[in-house]
Amino acid sequence: MFDNLSDKLEKALHNLKGHGKITEINVAETLKEVRRALLDADVNYKIAKDFTNNVKEKALGQQVLTTLQPGQLMVKIVKDELTQLMGGDAAGVNLSGNPTVILMSGLQGSGKTTFSGKLANYLKNKRNKKPLLVACDVYRPAAIDQLHIVGEQVGVPVFSDKGNNNPVDIAKKGVQYAKENHLNVVIVDTAGRLAVDEQMMTEISNIHKALNPQETLFVVDAMTGQDAVNTAKAFNDVLNFDGVILTKLDGDTRGGAAITIKSVVNKPIKFVGTGEKMDAIDVFYPDRMADRILGMGDVVSLVERAQEQFDEEQARKLQKKIAKNQFGFDDFLEQIQQIKRMGSMKDLLGMLPGVGKAVKDLDIKDDAFKHIEAIIHSMTPKERNRFKFKHDCALWSHRMDNCFDVLESIVFDIEVFHCFAYTGKHTKEVFHTTHTLNLLYLFKKVVKSKLVFCNFLLQFARLLFVKLLLSAFY
Questions:
Q1: Which residues of 113-133 are buried (b: 16+ CB within 10 A; e: fewer)?
Q2: Could you give the C-alpha distances from 148 to 99, 156, 164, 399, in angstroms and in order?
Q3: d(CA 356, CA 337)
Q4: DSSP 240
Q5: Into how many domains does the chain fold?
Q6: How far apart are the first and last CA of the chain?
Q7: Residue 199 maps to a domain
Q8: Cα angle: 30, vertex 31, 35; to 5 degrees
Q9: Residue at which a domain ends, from 293, 314, 330
Q10: What is the pLDDT of residues 64-83, one digit of tens each?
Q11: Would you say residue 386 lies in a domain?
Q12: What is the pTM for the complete model shown?
C-alpha cells in the first residue's frame, strides 16, 4: 500500500539526516523532493504546494528539541501535516435512526455491491447490528443476484423486488421490510452512474429525498487517483454525501486519492477496502495512515486485529503449554488458522514498523499455509503430539539475535520431524526454501537496525512473536 510514495518520502526526508540544525537551505532541498513525491503520487498540484509550504513554515518556526534530530523533527511535522490533510480525526458512521439507512453511491465498477456486503458484515460482527441489504440496481445484469450471493457470504438478509424497475419504490419497501423484521440497519445498494448523466443523478437524488438516510456514502476506486477526486467533487455538488469509501486501497501504490480527497470535497474518508475478502474493511484513521505512508507501520491496527482473533484465556493456556513443553502440531495449526483470519501475511507484516519496506518485494503467498496444513492433517494424533519445543521459553527474553538463533533451530526441528512423520517429495521444499531463508535474513537485518517493531512484539506477547514469524516463514 502506497509503496512508491513511501519510498520517495523516505528518501526525501533522509536528506536531513546528519545535519546539525534545520536551515532554510536544507529544508528547501528536502521539501522539493517531498513535493515531487506527492505529485508523482497523483496529488493535486495546489494541495502539494500548500502542504510543503505549511511544513516549511512550521519547520523554520521551531527550534530543534534536544531529544530530536532535524531529520526526526521533519518527519514529525510531515506526519502531522499528512494527518490533517487526510482529515485529522477518524469519522465514525452515523448509526442513529430506527432503522439506520445508509445509501451507497458511486461509479460503475467502483465496488459498491461488494463493499455493501463488507459494511454489512462489519456492522453485524463489530457493532452488533442487524443489517439488511437492499438491491436497487435495476440496470446492471445479475446485480441483484450478486447482492444475494454477497448477503449469503456474510449471513445478512437481502431484500429485492424483481420485476420492479423503480429503485425509489424498492428502497422504500426495503426500509419497511426492515421495520417489520426488526432489522436496525438498511444498506441500500444503488446502480453505478456518472455525474454527467442527469437522468441517473436525478434518480439517486429522488432515492435520497424519499429515504432521508442517516448516511450517504460515495464509493470510489482508490487506484483511479486524481480522477477519483474529481468524480467525488462532481457527485458531491449534486448529492452532498456524508463520507467517502475508498476501495481497492491494497492495490494503490501511489495514494493520491487518499491524501487529496478530503481537502477537495471537505468530506471525510470513513472506510477503506483492503482486500477481496468480506472482512477486508477498515475504519479510516488518518494518523495511522500517515504512519504507514512514512514507513512507521500501524501497530495499533495490528493489535486490534489480533485482539479480535485471539481469546485471552486460550492465549494463557497456550503459554502454559509452551512453558511445560506441551506445545504440539494441533496447537501450531490453530495458530496458523488464527493468523490467516487476521488478514494477508504481507498486509500484517506491513503494519510492523520498518518491516514493510523489507518485505515489499517478496512474493509472500498465503497459499503457502495450505502446504503446512496438509502436512499436519496427514499426521496421526500420536505424531502430532510427539513434537515438542525443546527450548527454554526464557530464551525469548534475551537479545533478539538469540531469538533468531532459537527460531532457526525450531525451524530445523520442524523440518527434521516432518521428514520422519510424513513421506513425500515436497516435504523439504515446504520447509527449506529460498523464500524461508530470505525472510529470515531480512528479519535479522531489520532487528539489527534497531527498528522499533520489536517493541510491539515484546509488549504484546512472546507467543505472538512465535506465531507471526513462524507463519511468515512458510
A1: bbbbbbbbbbbbeeeebbbbb
A2: 21, 9, 16, 53
A3: 22
A4: -
A5: 3
A6: 22
A7: yes
A8: 130
A9: 293
A10: 444 457 667 777 888 888 88
A11: yes
A12: 0.67
